[in-house]
Specification:
The complex is a heterodimer of chains A (about 1100) and B (about 220). Helices cover about 25% and strands about 20% of the residues of chain A. With about 1100 residues, chain A is an alpha/beta fold. In chain A, the strands form eleven sheets. In chain A, strands 6-5-17-16-15-7-8 form a seven-stranded mixed beta sheet. In chain A, strands 21, 22, 23, 24, 25, 26 and 27 form a seven-stranded mixed beta sheet that branches. A four-stranded parallel beta sheet of chain A has the order 12-11-10-13. Chain A is globular and about 85 Å long. Chain B contains ten helices and one strand, in the order H-H-H-H-H-H-E-H-H-H-H. The termini of chain B are far apart. Chain B is mainly α and about 220 residues long. In chain B, helix 5 packs across helix 6. The longest helix of chain B is centred in the first third of the chain and has 24 residues. Classes of the chains: A alpha/beta (about 1100), B mainly alpha (about 220).
Chain lengths: ~1100, ~220
């Protein structure tokens, strides 16, 4: 019988408490107190304890015989038979390639080790991205080594060889020669010039064949809007760097829109402020969901997606000074002052502002936005229109009609996954079954493959020859890094064989496309193309356009008036998932485990509902409300979000999913992230989340109204990595408004403990980073002072003002540093291994003093401001983790790195306990070796070791950690050492060993689209990082602890418009800070010191 | 009162002490022999699939180390040459030698010759050849006089202590750059030019890392 611990009864006098849970005496806390050990510590799941001991004893006995383990096993060196050109064993090689996603590709440099791609970086030659990459591009290398990918071509139960596939394609080509009647294709969208050429020749060969294209989500504005507005096929490209005022209408320009990497980068250019006199852009976001764009906004208006057209009309009416749009704006329930002042601000910045409508909005909204931009003089200044080819492909609806009519005999499904994500009203799965011959060409054995007679395995893009276009139309190569691991077929080759080309090999086809573009030597041009990774000057041509009010007016007649929403008639908004997109990355463990940037849920999607709706339907948390989604129950202790399951009904179709209360949503909009609920995806993706495609129909592809929600009374667990939403009035993130910053540039010093205590650096407070690092002693600090005598002193600066919270750094770090995934169950126990995380905080300024220690107002905010903060090892000079390590496993080196010697670590976890930033990660299991469902199997789990294939993604320059050791951010020590060694090699017989500034880019810095992270030598006063640390916004998180972190942050700024009705004189987190710390001050008007 | 212990028990304390000493000695000897690189690795001389004679090729014929170990100045690994390198000469000389059969086969098929690894650092040690040979540390310091070995054996312990001996006192081991690949040369210190060695360390800013991050990542 275990001992039961009872909470000691409180005596009279002041009451001290360690956590809010203890104060509130929540059931979860009481249950935790009663347990002798924390959850999971005293039981072994899966294997019986007795059994475990038996097997352990047996294996020890076996292991002991003969001391077999004492001599090192013989190993071999396997050199090449013939040397491979450019390959030097031990050095990585980089090749330019690109990852295509819908019509906008991300140009990449792939790092290969002896032919094995391990890491992707952005191609810096493509200046719009400046070497940045997106979250999904970072993770896509893992898909190459996905054990669940299609490994063979099959027809029914029979495996087809490559020759048989070629015969099959030749036969079809012959069979339909003539007019192609009965042949149909359903493909994904792409910008590939080679595919466009091959499709054209297919059309010529089979004039009556159907070529349809389908993408589950749209990320480019509707073509109809451009046609109606300007009479030609154009698409907008925004130049946010030149825009002083930006208004987004349901447009997540930092993630969901095509070109988001470029847009984030451009936005940051107008956002970055070094001196008090620097100008700063202003972002107005009108949105239904709470997106990253909304979190960066200076003014954010919550509005249902179905009301966006009306809002655009109201804004257009004010900007254009006309009343012709009044009828369209009927039914809009927005404070008209908000629109008035916003419009005034835009007009005042005519030619230097930009209004953006989300790609998913109806054409009418886009036409109105075009009218606004045209009137403001933004077109040609901040909004460029480029000419694009008018789409010629049929729609999936037209194809479905043809299948129903029985006129399709052979259907090729190229990529995509229509059986899973086609509009529900088409019932595409059943249609597929009715086609006599379905040939599926795809990367994984998914829902569509299961319904297809013939399945052709495709190659990964890192195994393929192809080409693509970026969002601005620049042509980029897709070239293979490795021979196809499972002998897949390249898409270009498949089309070329069907089209009956003479040289159907993909290489020859791409060569033909690119060679035809050059006037000179085709071979040279092609080599340059592969070397540079792009063709200079191949972007879509910019055209001047004139707004046509007549045709635009006609289109506006189609606009739908907003309907009023309530808890019984909701709006459902379908969004791409932040990580797994439309479901195509569902089997990618890195992406599944990466928490959503706003909800912080991993491994699942959830129906997001607003706090008001939660209250009205009665799922409002009764426990500690500072933790958004946590409904206190003894069976759902900390780290596990207990989510009530609800049933959503849209036009008679229903879907069930867990509810998550998301502050900042439009009150009666529920958000359904797409991409989950895969039934055939693989070990990782199958069964995660619910499938929102089942309720999405052709007429409501991005949102639907008249939606009802019913609670089922059931619950499920969600893995949420950060339930706690409040900074609780602390100074972790310091922010100010731009006008305050202009008056008091050093505002960060007037916040927090430092404002009240002597500077931790004493008389040296104003010295440079280099001086502080090497000269300033730490007074009476208990910690041993390392001698910082190294040539370099490494440090980092993170600009909170430009960080958009996109999570790309999280996955880049995972790829670079061999960080394992742990699975949903372990995430729920708080054991995720990410070395860098993004903390997301909400503040609504309403939490009063009492909230931080008593009853007070701690309602879940309906309309909060959000802030994100990248948090990783701060490399404290006086590191608290080091003094508690009993075995010196974590120590300092002479260049200021807090290093981990994995071999010394015995796993006491004292360091993690003593870390004030909570950035240390412990290998509770052999996460790198075991499948996530075999962690608890003890010695038996060895049968479920990771396949060799998965090991191929590992970075050979970083140790793979084993069970029982602690790990954390190393400042990418492998990159530092490689740079130092390269410099010393160059120096040879000289003393020129200092690594030049900018040589080393740590993984998180390299991927960052907004350059928020800077890393370098702080001993060099001219280095970029030293300069940033001299800026007045520079502060250290928890600096008062005098741990002297090497990573410091630049304070965040907001730029609200004083005339707006929702103007705030202080950022809301500051209001809460003042409420807590300066009760006597008037929080709303800014507590001054 | 009867005796509880027999008289022979008087010797017991001494016996226990002796036993403990012997046990301790055996344990120390066993650990030293079985578990330290000095004993485990030094002298290891496996049979190679091709009896390549370093002594003949470098000592007598005078091939430079870098002819075969071509990446030693550029990369972390010195690299064992592809069969192609052997065939540069052996397509002309000793073309039919049965001993060279694996090399010829590898050149034709691309299947590697399975050389047995002699020197091996653990997975968590990231030794880099290029930084050592470019900064005045000769091959001979770690590999011994390979130019005199007909079959290569493991000459130095290559334990962490061995590395640190040099990293703590590089002036004792540094050579002039021209001598790095000359395995018969002497270090500056051995030539009695220790002052020059000190000057070189200062001029070149040689600061071998002594903290974990230098070798462990």
């Amino acid at each position: 019988m275990k001992r039961k611990f009872d909470h000691p009864t409180a005596s009279n006098g002041p009451r001290y408490w360690r956590s809010l849970d203890e104060l509130a005496e929540t059931p979860g806390f009481r249950e935790q107190m009663a347990r002798e050990f924390p959850d999971g510590a005293s039981s072994i799941d899966g294997v019986d304890r007795r059994q475990f001991v038996k097997i352990m004893a047996a294996s020890f006995a076996l292991g002991g015989i003969g001391l077999a383990g004492c001599r090192r096993p013989e190993s071999n060196i396997l050199p090449y038979g013939k040397a491979v050109e450019y390959t030097i064993p031990g050095l990585p090689l980089y090749y330019a390639t690109a990852m295509a996603l819908r019509k906008s590709a991300v140009p990449l440099l792939a790092e290969t080790h002896q032919g094995r791609p391990t890491k992707l970086e952005g191609n810096p030659s493509y200046t719009p991205h400046g070497g940045a990459t997106s979250l999904v591009a970072q993770a896509s290398v893992l898909d190459l080594y996905d054990p669940d990918r299609a490994t063979a071509h099959t027809k029914g139960a029979k495996t087809l060889s490559a020759a048989e596939v070629n015969d099959l394609l030749a036969n079809i080509s012959k069979q339909y020669a003539g007019n192609g009647e009965g042949l149909a294709f359903l493909a994904d969208e792409t910008g590939s010039p080679t595919r466009a050429r091959l499709v054209a020749s297919l059309r010529q060969k089979f004039p009556r064949a159907i070529w349809a294209e389908y993408e589950a989500v749209q990320d480019e504005p509707p073509v109809a809007a451009a046609q109606a507005s300007f009479g030609r096929s154009v698409k907008p490209i925004y130049r946010f760097a030149k825009a002083k005022r930006i208004v987004t209408l349901d447009a997540d320009i930092f993630h969901a829109e095509s070109g988001s990497l470029y847009y984030a980068r451009e936005f940051a250019k107008g956002r970055r402020v070094a001196k008090a006199t620097d100008p700063m852009n202003r972002l107005y976001a009108v949105e239904s969901n709470f997106t990253l764009t909304g979190s960066m906004a200076d003014h954010r208006l919550r509005l249902a997606s179905s009301h966006m057209t009306a809002f655009a009309a109201a804004l257009a009416a004010r900007v254009l000074g006309t009343n012709v749009f009044d009828s369209l704006a009927q039914g809009l329930t927005v404070d008209s002052k908000w629109i008035d002042e916003c419009a005034k601000d835009l007009v005042a910045n005519g030619g230097a502002s930009a209004v953006v409508a989300g790609a998913h909005l109806p054409a009418a909204a886009h036409v109105l936005v075009n009218a606004i931009n045209a009137r403001l003089g933004n077109i040609g200044a901040t909004v460029d229109f480029v000419a694009v080819d008018a789409p010629t492909a049929s729609t999936i609806q037209a194809l479905a009609a043809a299948i129903k009519a029985g006129s399709v005999k052979t259907l090729f499904v190229l990529n995509g996954n229509p059986a899973y994500n086609a509009p529900a009203d088409l019932n595409f799965g059943a249609l597929l079954k009715s086609v006599p011959d379905v040939i599926r060409y795809g990367y994984s054995v998914d829902e569509t493959a299961a319904l297809s007679g013939t399945v052709l395995a495709s190659t990964h893009y890192l195994e393929s020859w192809s080409d693509a276009r970026t969002m601005d139309g620049t042509i980029v190569p897709v070239q293979p890094m490795i021979l196809p691991l499972f002998g897949g077929l390249m898409e270009v080759e498949l089309l070329a064989r069907l089209a009956g080309e003479d040289q159907p090999e993909a290489y020859a086809q791409v060569f033909a496309t690119i060679g035809a573009r050059s006037s000179g030597d085709a071979k040279k041009a092609f080599e340059k193309f592969l070397h540079d990774g792009l063709i200079e000057g191949s972007a879509y041509p910019s055209v001047s356009v004139a707004f046509n009010p007549q045709s635009a007016g006609e289109l506006l007649r189609t606009a739908v008036a907003p309907v009023s929403l309530s808890k019984d008639s909701l709006e459902a908004r379908f969004t791409t998932d932040h990580k797994i997109d439309d479901g195509r990355f569902a089997n990618n463990g890195w992406l599944q485990e990466c928490p959503d940037p706003m909800t912080k849920i991993s491994w699942d999607n959830a129906i997001l509902i607003s706090p008001r709706l939660a209250k009205e339907i009665g799922v409002y948390p009764s426990g500690t409300k500072l933790q958004v989604a946590r409904v206190e129950q003894a069976d759902f202790p900390q780290g596990k979000e207990k989510a009530p399951i609800a049933e959503i009904t849209i036009n008679g179709r229903t879907v069930r999913g867990p509810l998550h209360i998301q502050p900042g949503l439009a009150n009666y909009t529920i958000v359904l992230p797409l991409g989950y609920g895969r039934t055939q995806s693989g070990h990782i993706g199958t069964g995660a989340g619910f499938n929102a495609y089942t309720v999405r129909t052709s007429d409501s592809m991005s949102y639907a109204t008249g939606v009802t929600l019913r609670l089922t009374g059931e619950h499920m667990k969600l893995a949420n990595t950060q339930e706690h939403w409040s900074m609780e009035g602390r100074d972790i993130i310091r922010e100010a408004n731009h006008d305050e910053f202009q008056k008091n540039p050093a505002f960060v010093d007037s916040i927090g403990m430092e404002a009240h205590t002597p500077a931790v650096y004493g008389k040296d407070a104003n010295q440079s980073a280099a001086f502080l690092a090497t000269n300033t002693p730490r007074g009476n600090s208990l910690y041993e002072q390392p001698n910082f005598e190294g040539t370099h002193q490494w440090g980092m600066s993170i600009d909170l003002n430009t960080c958009i919270g996109c999570n790309a750094c999280v996955v880049a770090c995972q790829a670079e540093n061999n960080i394992p995934i742990v699975g949903k169950d372990q995430v729920m126990r708080g054991r995720e291994m990410h070395w860098i995380r993004l903390d997301r905080y909400y503040s609504d300024g309403k939490a009063d003093a009492g909230a931080f220690g008593g009853e007070g107002n701690k309602e879940i905010p309906e309309d909060p401001q959000a802030i994100v903060q990248p948090m990783t090892c701060q490399h404290c000079e006086a590191a608290p983790c080091e003094i508690v390590c009993p075995v010196n496993a974590t120590v300092h080196d002479d260049e200021g790195l807090n290093v981990m010697a994995y071999n010394r670590c015995i796993g006491t976890r004292y360091c993690a306990n003593n870390c004030p930033y909570k950035v240390r990660r412990f290998n509770y299991f052999d996460f790198n070796k075991r499948a996530t469902d075999a962690l608890y199997m003890g010695p038996l789990g060895h049968q479920k070791e990771m396949p060799e294939l998965v090991k191929m993604v590992k970075n050979p320059d970083v140790s793979v950690r084993m069970r029982g050791v602690m790990e954390k951010c190393t400042y990418c020590v492998q990159r530092i050492q490689q740079a130092k060694i390269a410099q010393k090699r160059k120096a040879g017989a000289s003393g020129d060993i200092e690594v030049p500034d900018g040589t080393i880019k740590v993984a998180c810095q390299q991927v960052c689209p907004v350059d928020a992270i800077e890393f370098g030598n702080i001993k060099d006063p001219n280095s970029r990082v030293s300069q940033l640390k001299l800026e007045e916004r520079d502060y250290a998180v928890l600096g008062y602890l005098n741990v002297r972190p090497r990573t410091t942050y630049l304070g965040k700024l907001r730029n609200p418009n004083p005339h707006m009705p929702d103007y705030y004189a202080l950022p809301l987190s500051r209001v809460e800070y003042n409420n807590k710390n300066h009760v006597s001050h008037d929080g709303q008007n800014g507590g001054k010191h | 009162m009867s005796k509880i212990f027999p008289k022979s028990a008087n010797a017991l304390p001494l016996q226990i002490v002796i036993f403990l000493f012997v046990l301790g000695g055996v344990a120390t000897a066993a650990v030293t022999y079985y578990a330290t690189p000095k004993y485990v690795r030094v002298g290891y001389q496996p049979v190679q699939p091709v009896p390549f004679d370093h002594g003949l090729h470098t000592g007598q014929l005078g091939l430079d180390c870098r002819y075969c170990h071509a990446s030693v100045e550029k990369s972390a690994t010195s690299s064992v040459p592809p069969a192609q390198t052997c065939m540069n000469c052996h397509s002309i000389i000793k073309t039919t030698s049965p001993l060279l059969e694996p090399v010829r086969k590898s050149f034709e098929t691309g299947e590697p010759v399975e050389w047995v690894k002699v020197h091996q650092t653990p997975d968590y040690v990231y030794f880099n050849h290029s930084v050592h040979v470019n900064r005045g540390i000769s091959c001979v310091e770690c590999h011994g006089k390979v130019n005199e070995m007909s079959t290569v054996w493991h000459d130095k312990s290559l334990s962490m202590g061995f590395c640190l001996d040099c990293h703590r006192a590089p002036e004792k081991f540094i050579r002039e750059p021209k001598d790095v690949f000359n395995l018969d040369s002497k270090t500056l210190a051995d030539q009695g030019r220790i002052d020059e060695a000190h000057k070189m360390i200062k001029d070149w800013k040689v600061k071998p890392p002594q903290s974990c991050s230098g070798c462990h990542r």
